[in-house]
Design goal:
The chain is α/β, with parallel strands linked by helices and about 220 residues long. The protein has helices spanning about 10-25, 35-45, 60-70, 85-95, 110-120, 150-160, 165-175, 180-190, 195-205; strands spanning about 5-10, 30-35, 50-55, 75-80, 100-105. β1, α1 (about 10-25) and β2 form a beta-alpha-beta unit. The protein is globular and about 45 Å long.
């Protein structure tokens, strides 16, 4: 099933360009919004699979819209598409519930790939932001006394999810069965107090347990 996408940007030319790019790739654009308030209303009404979300907009910024969508339309996966090359905003967006963060100088193929991955896997490529790697792991994070106490194997599983691997690929890479991966995921969700993979990745980043992939 092809993804259903909502476009959110206060510049009409940007929306038109995205609509053409996605349409040429066979992705259905179900709506467009030019400000945060309209974006929230349309997302709740239309229930798109993926929302491509700008950050700086009239009435309500994209991070706030994303945070509210977690409560009002939790099945909608948000990918930030922004001009802001800012690690703090990246962290805020992921903490709010975004599954990806792309800069507007990304190529059309990157945007299309991010939409497909967000729809299929619940994660999307996240651009490297700033001078260094995004969300570098803090000193001491992941060690006893710092955040949730995940085992080494659970950390490996969570990192592979953040890298964009589906659970079956995680099993292949770690030479374990899919059932064992599911067991690890259950333990990870319980320890991080989350309900799904997207939330687990966000929580892992927030606690400094994992890193975002470069590029």
């Amino acid at each position: 099933m092809r993804p259903r996408v909502l476009l959110v940007d206060d510049h009409r030319l940007v929306r038109e360009g995205l609509r053409r790019t996605l349409g040429d790739a066979g992705i259905e654009v179900v709506g467009e919004a030019e400000d945060g308030g309209r974006a929230l209303a349309l997302a709740v009404e239309l229930r798109p699979d993926v929302t491509l979300m700008d950050i700086t907009m009239p009435s309500m910024d994209g991070v706030t819209v994303t945070r509210r969508l977690r409560r009002r339309a939790p099945d909608t996966r948000v990918v930030m598409l922004t001009m802001h090359d800012d690690e703090e905003l990246l962290q805020q967006a992921l903490a709010a519930g975004a599954v990806g963060y792309l800069l507007k100088d990304a190529g059309g193929e990157e945007v299309v790939a991010a939409v497909h991955r967000a729809h299929a896997e619940g994660v999307a490529a996240t651009a490297q932001v700033g001078a260094g790697p995004p969300l570098a792991r803090p000193t001491g994070a992941g060690s006893p006394g710092h955040g949730p106490d995940l085992s080494d194997r659970e950390l490996e599983v969570l990192q592979l999810l953040a890298d964009g691997c589906a659970p079956r690929e995680v099993a292949t890479r770690l030479f374990i069965s899919p059932k064992t991966v599911r067991n690890h995921l259950s333990h990870i969700y319980a320890k991080l107090e989350v309900a799904d993979r997207s939330q687990a990745i966000v929580a892992g980043l927030r606690h400094g347990l994992i890193d975002l992939p470069e590029g």
